[in-house]
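Example record

Each entry pairs one chain with its bound ligand, NDP.
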Amino acid sequence: MPRVLMLRDQEPRSQVEELGVDQLPDRSVSVDIDYSDLNYKDALAVTGKGKIVRDYPFVPGIDFAGTVRESHSDRYAPGDKVILTGWGVGERHWGGFAETMNVDAEWLVPCPEALSPRDSMLLGTAGLTAMLSVIRLEQAGLAAGSKVLVTGATGGVGSWAVQMLAQLDYEVHAVTGKADQHAWLKELGASEIVDRSELDGDTRPLEKGLWDGAVDTVGGKVLASVLARMTYQGRVAAVGLAGGTDLPTTVMPFILRGVALLGVDSVMVPFEQRQAAWQRLAALPRDLFTRMHVEEVGLGQAATQAEAMLKGKTRGRVLINPH
Ligand code: NDP
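Structure tokens for the complex follow.
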């Protein structure tokens, strides 16, 4: 009788329920979940503040790591360690806030040997997205040693991006709205801290060029300010919308400085690219994992953590242990 966090389009919106295995979706691989985690999109889904979920009742959770219990696919056998991120799981398909979930084999990637299920969810969609951003910047020619800005730096994607870029010898500047987290960001590898208030106001189309690259998890005016402050042929990976979906900019950064705006999507990214990213994540040094701030909670605390995340009150990663 797996326990799940069930969402309903009524009050109470979420509660922990026990389901019969025959109530789970009819899909080819059944996975016993060790860990899921809370991402910004999960917070929107759990609280109902974003239109993430449309069909109820619904089990949220856009990613999980666990062990195959039963498989009707020749790709996976019982006992295999697997990771799932994206593909609309936790949005259109029942997700990872559960002890067991049935999913399509095509949505899974094998868990690399070097990563435990807990480590892989300490990374989760956030870590994968940070790595996809790093890869995008590298492919666009960003050279090691250059100055790279990370916005929303204490968040899941942001804090992993700070660590990964610092480890690759970029000079990382971290933007945060949290005045009490500067020391932690420096511990993660940031060499300079920029207060969010310096970037979230109106900006001129072009300002003095300060950074050669950026990972932006915020969008809105912050992204417009970042674009205006890139050096010649700077590269910006646009990842998120924690500060808004609009982009009040002009074509000036693109046509006068040759700035490149690079979209990053972790949901539909093809299998080979995911697997390559997970191999790089598996090779990260252990101290990056120990420095990450983690809050580990059960299914019953997911809603409280989701409210806190949308208020910008979480930092690092929130792990969901369904057991
Ligand atoms: P988190 O909540 O962990 O991090 C978001 C961070 O953004 C916060 O910690 C805060 O950092 C900053 N922030 C929050 N609210 C605001 C605001 N109003 N204005 C400016 N900054 C703000 O979320 P995630 O790391 O999980 O996700 C970050 C973003 O990336 C989200 O928009 C998410 O949807 C998106 N995303 C996109 C993916 C993709 O595939 N493209 C995959 C994963 C996430 P601080 O206090 O340090 O400033």
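Residues 39-41, 125-126, 129, 152-158, 176-178, 196, 217-218, 222, 239-243, 264-267, 309, 312, 314 surround NDP (CB under 6 Å).
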